[in-house]
Every structure is written in structure tokens, then in C-alpha cells.
Amino acid sequence: MSKKRAITVAKGDGIGPEIMDSTLKILQAAGAEIDPEFIDIGEKVYLSGQSSGIEDDAWESLRRTKVFLKAPITTPQGGGYKSLNVTIRKSLGLYANVRPNISYDPFVKTKHPDMDLVIIRENEEDLYAGIEHQQTPEVVQCLKLITRPGSEKIIRYAFEYARKNNRKKVTCFSKDNIMKLTDGLFHKVFNEIASEYPDIETEHWIIDIGIAKIADTPQDFDVIVMPNLYGDIASDVAAQITGSVGLAGSANIGDQCAMFEAIHGSAPDIAGKGIANPSGLINGAIMMLVHIGQPEVAGKIHNAWLKTLEDGIYTGDIAKGAKSVNTKEFTEAVIDRLGQKP
Ligand code: ATP
Ligand code: MG
């Protein structure tokens, strides 16, 4: 019997197919024991009349393999299209969004050479719960949902992540000076769970000054946990200051299923040109390999990818006007470096 792990793969829209082909080629060359099952999601599916952007039989593959490697998709503008990301997170119970933000200075120039933080964002509750009402033609309302079980789950995940990954501090962001009940509950649960982890340093910042501190002194942070909407905003700020949105990957974790992706969008402006940076999806795939119990292959790919950057081989988004390579050349450069010493 094959020991290959079945995974569900979606090539997505825009630059999606280009960066997915690159990533799968690298996984194969590195000897990842995976058996990809391809599903169609995104623009084509939306436009064929399925407003969720995903076909019914794609769920069968996702529920069976429980592991999803997903390229970015385009949501058509206007019309009644829902966000497929929100649909997938809720349907598969992916409660934790894990986004590492690392500086690769001096190989990728940034203003923050010592940055190495992980944002852990609650992924199902808060203002994303979709509880919106129109009260009168001129008054609309959106309800913020924070639950004790949801808060306990994400905060415990953050502390367990810190322990497992040898991280020293967990910071909580909230706005409980204003939202005393909702954010107050999140902060209270944080303090309760923190007391179970005396080995880990803890701190709390009000969200506005917290994000300002990420932008100014990101090196002061380690693991940061926060409710959904704050996590969305904070993680874009953190990713941007590492040098390019094309670099970072993310994991969406649930009790049964998990989804891995790049943090950026489908970049329609450069789609089809063969110049996209596949690094974000490669980093998502590295997190996937660790999740499915293939950490050696993950490490091998990570080292080869780092070596590629160290050797000054950049796609256009990183080279910023200097000499650059295309997606295919970057992919081959990573494959050439598999197994080399970092
Ligand atoms: P979406 O709505 O799908 O999230 P967006 O408008 O937020 O899309 P992105 O698709 O993330 O934006 O693109 C933002 C900018 O970054 C674009 O100019 C795009 O070309 C560039 N970009 C994004 N990803 C990459 C990548 N992997 N390689 C090179 N450039 C990228
Ligand atoms: Mg975007």
C-alpha cells in the first residue's frame, strides 16, 4: 500500500496555477509523500452559478483528506458572491489562523532586520460571524460575537503553539477599554489561561497601540493572539514590513481539518506572465508538511528556499528593479539547492 498522504489541492485564479505548479514541483523533487486530489474553486465556479465559489463534490474530497493546499482565488466584484475563504473556514471549523512574519534581512531588505513574530488570529467569531441586519433604510447593524469556548480554544492554541515552537512570550491584543463585555471576555480568558503557562511570559496591549508597536518595533513581539478582525489588520501590517506580500504563508487550523495557503491574493495584474513569486505558497506548503508529519521534507525545502534567497536569486517583487528571475527559474533554483547545506 502506498504511504502517500492524500491532500486536496486547488490551483485557484490569477497567479494561482503558476505558483501552485511551482510549489508542487518542489514538493515532488524534495520527496514529499503526498497524493494531490485537484478540486476547482474560485472565479470559474462562481461564474457558473455556484455563489459559494466551490462545487458540492469538492467538499467530499476536503472532508476525506482533511488537508487543503489552496492557491489564491478571485472573488468577482459585485453580485451576491460570498467570500469563499470565510465559507471554507466556517464549514471546516478552521478556528485558528497562524501567520508567521519573519525578516530575511540582509537577503531581503527591510527596516526591521530582527523581526520574527507569529500572529494567531481567531478565525470564526467576532464581526466575521455574519450577523448583520438592516433596521431601517438608513440604519444597519453588525453584531460582534465573542464566546468563552471560542476564546479559550484560540488562546490555548496560542500558548500550546508557543510551547511547541520554543517561543518565550504570548501577547494579547484587545480593545477592552471600550468593548468591556466582548473584548473584556477575551482578555479575561487570556489572563486565566496564561496562569496555566507559568513558563511563558505574557503581556497585553490595546489593539491600536499594539499594531503601532508592530510597525515600529516588531522585534519586541513573539506570539500574538487576538480576535478575528484585529488579526486581519495586524497580520497585513506585519507581512508588509517583512519586505513583500509574496513571502509569507499561513495555516488555518481546526480540530479535524487544516488549510494552507499564501497570505497574498490572486494578483490579476501579473497573472499569466510567469513572474509571480511562489514563496508564500511554498511556505504554506512547508507548514502543511510539518502538520502531516513530514518535518524532514519540510526542513529540506525550507533550507533550499532560504539558500536561494541567500544566493541573491529573486523574483521581481523582491528584486525591485535589480536583476530578477521568473517563476520557473526561481523554482529550478530551489530544486537545485535541495539537500545542500544552508
Ligand atoms: P485579493 O483581493 O485577491 O486579496 P489584493 O488586491 O489584495 O487581492 P494581491 O493579489 O495580494 O492584492 O496583490 C497585491 C499586489 O502585490 C499586486 O500588485 C500584486 O501583483 C502583488 N503580488 C501579490 N502576490 C504576489 C506574488 N506572489 N508575487 C509577486 N507579486 C505579488
Ligand atoms: Mg488582499
Automatic annotation (TrEMBL):
Give the family per the record. Belongs to the isocitrate and isopropylmalate dehydrogenases family.
From the UniProt record, which GO molecular function terms apply? isocitrate dehydrogenase (NADP+) activity
How is the subunit organization of this protein annotated in UniProt?
Answer: Homodimer.
Sequence ranges assigned to domain Isopropylmalate dehydrogenase-like in this UniProt record: 6-334
Documented EC number(s)? 1.1.1.42
Q: Which reaction does it catalyse?
A: D-threo-isocitrate + NADP(+) = 2-oxoglutarate + CO2 + NADPH
The organism is Evansella alkalicola
Q: Describe the task this protein carries out.
A: Catalyzes the oxidative decarboxylation of isocitrate to 2-oxoglutarate and carbon dioxide with the concomitant reduction of NADP(+).
Record's keyword terms, sorted: Glyoxylate bypass, Magnesium, Manganese, Metal-binding, NADP, Oxidoreductase, Tricarboxylic acid cycle
Interval of the full protein contained in this chain: 1 to 342 of 488
This protein is called Isocitrate dehydrogenase [NADP]
Name the lineage: Bacteria, Bacillati, Bacillota, Bacilli, Bacillales
State the needed cofactors, names only: Mn(2+); Mg(2+)
